[in-house]
Amino acid sequence: MIFRQAMFVLKRLLPFILILLTYDSFRGIADQLNTNVNYSFPPSIDRWLFGELPTVSLQSWLWHGHVRWYDFALYLPYLLHFVLPIGLAILIWQTKQSYYWRYVVTFTVVSFAAFFTFLLFPAAPPWLASDNGHIEPVTRISSDVWHSLGLTDFPSVYNHISPNPVAAVPSLHAAWAILVSIFVFRYYGRKWGALSALYPLVIFFGTVYQGEHYFIDVVLGVLYAIGAYLISPYIVRLLKKPALHIWSRHTRGRSQAAKAARIRLNHSSNTRSACR
């Protein structure tokens, strides 16, 4: 019984997981297809908005050359990038099943929209722009977080789990985080929605402070997410129409076959009665 339930859950979640894995594989080759990396546009927008880079300002305020407790607190949600969307997918499937495919379609749309942006406009995050001398010095705080945990070769490990270092515009961490909160608000009410809003807020602040994204990357990630959320109902309806058409043809065919079988059976019975 437990095994059957586990298999049923796996089958229901498998399309969602495969979509995310396919997107992540595509993202990993985007920088190989277009090597013209942009280092100037995102920091120029941030400077136009704030006068100076928010990452530099936040690090001058909070970063003191060594990891503090809030660096762990800000980086942990960053690591939940895949975990929380899949967890919420399970919850929606179990409790709000009629909305499940809208959730899946929304994440699919925003992910592949981001992929095509990465492909057409590869852009460096602050830490990489700093390493290459395009902006003032910025510390990649995530490296120090991992170093404090005993992982001294963080860049090599990161290149395996996130193989595209120039997939910065838009911030998909911001996009997925805001979608998680939007769906919690939409399906589970204001109380849980308000609590879930802490997640994207921490992501927005943490990714900018820790040198993973510019502010404009976060803004574009949110806009991509809202666009995907708004367009997803139309896509779901379009996808359902062929499915309903196929199902109606299937059921109509079955009913016609059953009717034909009944006619043949009645004809055979009448024939036997006549022979007697």
Give the topology.
Elements: H1 2-33, H2 41-50, H3 54-62, H4 69-79, H5 83-95, H6 100-120, H7 126-131, H8 141-148, H9 154-161, H10 172-196, H11 198-209, H12 215-275
Model description:
By secondary structure, the protein is mostly helical. Helix content is 78%, strand content 0%. Helix 6 runs antiparallel to helix 10 (172-196) and helix 6 packs across helix 12.
Sheet/helix structural class: mainly alpha
Q: What overall geometry do the principal axes of the alpha carbons give?
A: globular
Order of helices and strands: HHHHHHHHHHHH
Q: Main β-sheet: number of strands, strand sense, barrel status? A: none
Helix coverage percent: over 70%
Strand fraction band?
Answer: under 5%
- Count the strands? 0
Mean pLDDT rating: 80
Low-confidence stretches: 243-248
Which labels suit this protein?
276 residues; mainly alpha; 12 helices; globular
Short description:
The protein has 12 helices and no strands. It is mainly alpha-helical and 276 residues long.
